[in-house]
Automatic annotation (TrEMBL):
Homodimer. Residues 32-392 form the Aminotransferase class I/classII large domain. It comes from Paracoccus aminophilus JCM 7686. This is Aminotransferase. Its EC number is 2.6.1.-.
């Protein structure tokens, strides 16, 4: 009898681990490595948020709290949804968890039965399909196209829905492409969903505040109020306020789902960290200057990276609307051989050769379900990004 569970066997080990390990090995050998694989802002959490956490400790907020969030934070989350998204939720329709990740996990665990399908536009955040598998469901990846801005189209959504579809996951702006859905794009998808009343929508809005140029963020419950009673609007403080380590995410949905998620959380982690909840409260209620400041920095970096990659022979790089990722295609480079003698048979070979020969670590597209591409996270300094782009250009120029 196997010691490890069959549930675990359904989940693949992360394909990004190999490249991360290789980058570590090379760095340990003294090689000059630039890692563009991290999915987190490189800034410190704003000072007033850190101070609020210290004050929470001194005020004795160091004990268990209500399982799915302190009332003050739930109220602040309702105010945030009203202020920024025009959405009316009551505290009973809100849940707080250990990161947006736990919110997604709770929702899938609380709702999926064997055979239930979850539509996931590809390329996708690596955790979606594996969470669906852990919850016993079936992920249904739908490949988006670069010429559609890596956005799921209404036709693709319609074609993917079956009588087993329980959820569709929307992530705008997206990890890994940075693609953002406009109000019109979301309305197109909403029109399809209105014809399928049993399908719920999981709106992962974690990159809401990282949008550039004149792109305006919308979330589907706001675009189509008739869907609101089957939408889970998920968000968190990780990316908006440089708080990845604090582990606070939240979601708003009809009470039936929120109660089920809370029940699950009560028997697994209990409340998210009390101190982090007070920090998140300060983030949502305090000065919001950090958001505009970080947005300006990320926009500048996006422009730098897109221009740098467009200068690389054989790379096609779309200009994303948001987040801090670009997802260029290497379609034209497949079949070539690197200066170091590696055949670029697929995007994994590209990423491996790029790392070995130039020291730049990127994540290959197969990890996100759409090839041949790679993802760069530009959450690092302009100097490092310029250096990385120059190395990638040299690598591409050396391909025969
Ligand atoms: N959703 C997406 C698309 C992400 O990229 C991430 C983190 O990388 C998360 C959700 C979860 O973020 P957290 O658990 O830190 O709130």
């Amino acid at each position: 009898m196997s010691f490890l569970s069959q549930t675990l066997a359904r989940v693949k080990p992360s394909p990004t681990i190999a490249i991360t390990n290789r980058a570590r090995e090379l760095a340990a050998e003294g090689r000059d490595i630039i890692s563009l694989s991290a999915g987190e802002p490189d800034f410190d959490t704003p000072a007033h948020i850190r101070e609020a956490a210290k004050a929470a400790i001194d005020a004795g907020h160091t004990r268990y709290t209500a399982v799915d969030g302190i009332p003050e934070l739930k109220k602040a989350i309702c105010a945030k949804f009203k202020r920024e998204n025009g959405l009316d939720y009551t505290p009973a329709q809100v849940t707080v968890g250990t990161g947006g990740k736990q919110i997604l996990y709770n929702a899938l665990m609380a709702t999926l039965n064997p055979g239930d399908e979850v539509i996931i536009p590809a390329p996708y955040w690596v955790s979606y399909p594996d969470m669906v598998l852990l919850a016993g469901g079936t992920p249904v990846a739908v490949e988006t196209e670069m010429q559609n801005g890596y956005r799921l189209t209404p036709e693709q959504l319609e074609a993917a829905i079956t009588d087993k579809t329980k959820w569709v996951i929307l992530n705008s702006p997206s990890n890994p492409t940075g693609a953002g859905y406009t109000r019109e794009h979301l309305q197109g998808l909403a029109d399809v969903l209105l014809r399928h009343p049993d399908v719920w929508v999981l709106a992962d809005d974690i990159y809401e505040h990282l949008v550039f140029d004149d792109f305006k963020f919308w979330t589907i419950a706001q675009v189509e109020p008739k869907l609101k009673d089957r939408v889970l609007t998920m968000n968190g403080v990780s990316k908006a306020y440089a708080m990845t380590g604090w582990r606070i995410g939240y979601g708003a949905a009809p009470e039936i789902l929120i109660k089920a998620m809370s029940k699950l959380q009560s028997q697994s982690t209990s409340n998210p960290s009390s101190i982090s909840q007070y920090a998140a409260l300060a983030a949502l209620e305090g000065p919001q200057d950090y958001i505009a400041e970080s947005r300006a920095v990320f926009e500048r970096r996006r422009n730098l990276v897109v221009a740098g990659l467009r200068d690389c022979p054989g790379i096609t790089c779309p200009k994303p609307e948001g987040a801090f990722y670009v997802y260029p295609s290497i379609h034209h480079l497949i079949g070539k051989t690197s200066a170091g003698g590696t055949l670029i048979a697929d995007d994994e070979a590209f990423a491996t050769a790029l790392l070995n020969e130039t020291g730049v670590a990127v994540v290959f597209g197969a990890a996100f379900g759409l090839s041949p591409c790679f993802r760069i996270s530009y959450a690092t300094s302009d100097e490092i990004l310029a250096d990385a782009c120059a190395r990638i250009k040299g690598f591409c120029e050396g391909l025969k």
